[in-house]
Amino acid sequence: CTMTGHTVTVRFVAFSRDGTRIVSGSNDHLLKIWDAGSGAEVCTLRGHTGEVFSVAIFPDGKRIVSGAGDNPVKIWDVETGAEVFTLRGHTDFVLSVAISPDGTRIASGSRDEL
């Protein structure tokens, strides 16, 4: 199936561990959650003010982490689409994010080399 919804380049996609959801991040500053089986858009996450460069889904499938051109790392609730927490510290684009296998730690990479 084809998923349509972003208005510009999609930079990153990630599957949930159970394979039921896909999360995408785009230059339109949005994250979208998709049903992997039907391709239907489930939710749009708004809160970044820069291009979304990287997304990852926590192992339990309940939260998402994202990195973008606005510098913070954000954590989102999958069910509500709400921004749960913002991690500040980077001074330049956050280009990559990752979650530890047990879901207790987040790593991020940035152009600021921190």
Chain-wise SSE layout:
Layout: E1 10-15, E2 21-26, E3 31-35, E4 41-45, E5 52-57, E6 63-68, E7 73-77, E8 83-87, E9 94-99, E10 106-110
Antiparallel strand pairs: 1-2, 2-3, 3-4, 5-6, 6-7, 7-8, 9-10
So how many helices? 0
Q: What is the straight-line distance between the termini? A: 39 Å
Structural class: mainly beta
* Rg from alpha-carbon coordinates: 13 Å
- Number of DSSP strand runs: 10
The fraction of residues assigned to DSSP E strands is: over 45%
Mean of pLDDT: 91
Helix content: under 10%
Biggest sheet features: 4 strands, antiparallel
Spatial order of strands in the largest sheet: 1-2-3-4
Low-confidence stretches: none
Shape annotation: globular
What is the multimeric organization of the chains shown? Answer: single chain
Structure keywords:
114 residues, mainly beta, 4-stranded antiparallel beta sheet
Word description of this protein:
The protein is mostly beta strands and 114 residues long. The chain is 0% helix and 48% strand. It contains no helices and ten strands. It has strands at residues 10-15, 21-26, 31-35, 41-45, 52-57, 63-68, 73-77, 83-87, 94-99, 106-110. The strands form three sheets. A four-stranded antiparallel sheet has the order 1-2-3-4, with no helix packed on it. Strands 5-6-7-8 form a four-stranded antiparallel sheet, with no helix packed on it. Strand 5 (52-57) and strand 6 (63-68) form a beta hairpin. It is globular and about 40 Å long. The N and C termini lie far apart (39 Å). The mean pLDDT is 91.
